[in-house]
Design goal:
TPR-like_helical_dom_sf; 10% strand; electron transport
């Protein structure tokens, strides 16, 4: 066992609490290693040293793959050492091999909260509440104080969408920094923008319901209704409509029903009971 409060040993039984749950509070770096692996033995003390130097800004969790083979398989570990970084309950980045300390620091720093992150969080709350002028002021402050903060670009995309320019926001989200590609917040925003774009010139929900009552083969009405459900966070209702669309009309919108379900899964973070249930329904319908 380790004596450092910043280093833990994770097993199949403790992985949920020590890694997945803990990663909602701070990043968790998971070192998948084995005793026979010489590079693992080189890397391990370096990671432990960094965990202590960063003073708890991230947690290091060690997984012995010889003892936890199922856990290693679950996370797709094919070579050792592999180090995965978890945030908000999911792996968002990784590296393989015994990298030099400078590269490991660069890897960690991409995911460690920065001094301006609090300002960005405030700005995002203001954007969600519709207080765009106040949010814009905070974004300008961050741009002046910390222009290299990757999350500034994400907040700017959210601002663009809130201003009503969904098409530009969709274009901008594909140009976000590489370190944000697997960020759960980006996946959520991309899903929201996709359905917002679909509704840019769409009829109101009541009209779409009436159309579907008159003609249950109206695929456009069914898809747009699903988009309305997504934007008011009725994800189960949206998935029901999209699953029905997938079963009825795979040709509509180049398989828009199935693709829409996948977009909702991403929006929901790719996990949880709702996603698991509807993913099973989707697979049953496909095969």
């Amino acid at each position: 066992m380790t004596d450092s409060p910043n280093v833990v040993i994770a097993t199949a039984e403790s992985f949920q609490s020590l890694v997945l749950d803990a990663s909602f509070d701070r990043p968790v770096l998971v070192d998948f290693w084995a005793d026979w692996c010489a590079p693992c033995r080189m890397l391990m003390p370096l990671l432990a040293k960094l965990a202590d130097e960063y003073r708890g800004r991230f947690l290091l969790a060690k997984v012995n793959t010889e003892e936890e083979q199922a856990l290693a398989a679950q996370f797709g570990i094919r070579s050792l050492p592999t180090v995965q970084l978890f945030k908000s309950g999911r792996a968002v980045d990784q590296f393989m091999g015994a990298l030099p300390e400078s590269q490991i620091r660069e890897f960690i720093d991409r995911h460690i909260p920065r001094a301006t992150d609090g300002l960005l969080t405030q700005a995002q709350h203001l954007i969600a509440a519709g207080s765009l002028e106040e949010a814009r002021g905070l974004l300008e402050r961050v741009k002046a104080e910390d222009p290299d903060n990757a999350r500034l670009r994400l907040a700017e995309v959210q601002m663009t969408a809130a201003e009503g320019d969904v098409a530009t926001a969709l274009d901008e989200i594909d140009r976000l920094p590489l370190e944000l590609v697997n960020d759960p917040e980006v996946a959520t925003l991309r899903g929201q923008l996709r359905f917002s774009s679909a509704l840019s010139d769409a009829p109101p929900e009541a009209e779409l319901k009436a159309r579907l009552q008159q003609d249950d083969k109206d695929s456009e009405a069914r898809y747009l209704l699903a988009a309305h459900h997504v934007l008011r966070a009725d994800y189960a209702g949206a998935l029901d409509l999209l699953l029905d669309l997938m079963k009825r009309d795979r040709a509509y919108g180049d398989d828009a029903g199935r693709k829409g379900m996948l977009a909702v899964f991403d929006l929901l973070g790719g996990g949880g009971d709702l996603v698991a249930g509807y993913r099973a329904k989707m697979m049953n319908a496909l095969y």
